[in-house]
Amino acid sequence: MVETLLFFVLIGCLLGIMTGLTPGIHVNTIAVIALGLFQTGRFELVVLIVSMSIVHTFMDFIPSVMLGVPGEDNLLSVLPGHRFFLKGKGHHAVLLTVWGGIVGGIAAIALSPIFLKFLQKSIAEIAKAIPFILAAVLALMVLKERETGKKIFSLAIIALSSLLGIIALSAASSIKNPLIVLVLGFFGAAPLLHSLKNKPVAKKQGSGEEKIESGVVFESALLSVLAASFVSMLPGIGPNQAALTVRTIVGKIRESSYLVLLGGINTANMFFSLIVLYAIGKTRTGTAVAIKQLIELQPEHMFALVAVSLIAIAWGAIATVAISKWLLKVVGKFDYGKINLFVFAVLVAIVFSLSNSLGMIAFATATMIGFAAIAFGIKRSHCMAFLMVPTILYYGFSLTLP
């Protein structure tokens, strides 16, 4: 039995590498395929899905750092991460997210009994505060812009992003896979277009051996656990909104600390979503949705999944560091402008294959809004309004959103 479970852990870890490195392919997609291939009720498949999901939380920072193409759960890593790459510190940026994932993931496992008790007592009160918290974050984002002109442009970007998000993510929308379409438009295609226009040159990449302060790692990673616990309790709130909220509330935060924070939130959130499913039967991630269709988690399952998660954290960290080093050597041998053009074409092909004609229009619109934000010197994080405002409406006015 143990040997069988370890085999499924291995398969899951390998699939997590694949999904993490491939823009547009998410663990949710592989989980759905796996559900169709195996009979329900098999704990081995749960083990595969969990290990795949955790490894994915480590690996998906590589394309966002090196190519500026994010996954659904790490949109904000593009901003500081890709800047590190352009300065020749791409591997260092990846290492920061890895350390965040290690410390954040292990801390989430260690603190899960406390989280379980807190979850059962406080979830209703927290849900009521969500719209006010996110509205305050949006307001602070605008106020932090120093120039009056930029404040006005920020409001325009937030308004346009919000409108597009409300239309695309509403239950009445006919857009297929709207979330990935908008993600790739705002945070994938837009910066790639900007790079093609301005032709930035990436410096020769270093080995990533710059000193990483242990204090920064533990402080940011533990903060990420608090943010992840908040995220995992409620639908409509993702790791990106949590990271943006933390950054806005805490104030100025170093880019290195922010990358650690993002890495920690992603991994901790994945484990906490299992606790939420076990405790109250609610699904907060695609991984949890797939598991709920397979079995009803019992205490003995959770003990096994703790071991699986620890193995996946170790695998994800080691594989991410090794693959990052190798890819940086390969990427450095090619013309960066041509790489950007190729990746942009791949993104268009992904949207074309995963969505429909309305999705292509939404993708193009999101790309133009994101490009406008960059051109006006506005922080791209303002485009997160496409998720934040629908979430505010969902909690504040009980609108029907997916």
Give the ordered list of helices and strands: HHHHHHHHHHHHHHHH
What is the count of helical runs?
16
Structural class: mainly alpha
Number of domains: 1
> Radius of gyration in whole Å, from Cα?
20 Å
Q: What is the overall pLDDT average?
A: 81
Distance between the termini: 38 Å
The parts where pLDDT drops under 50 for at least 5 residues are none
Sum up the overall morphology in one term. Answer: globular
Major β-sheet, in short? none
Percent in strands:
under 5%
Please report the total strand number as a whole number.
0
Please explain how this structure is put together.
With 402 residues, the chain is mostly helical. The protein has one domain. The model has no long low-confidence stretch (mean pLDDT 81). Helices cover 77% and strands 0% of the residues. It is globular and about 60 Å long.
Brief synopsis:
By secondary structure, this protein is mainly alpha-helical. It is 77% helix and 0% strand.
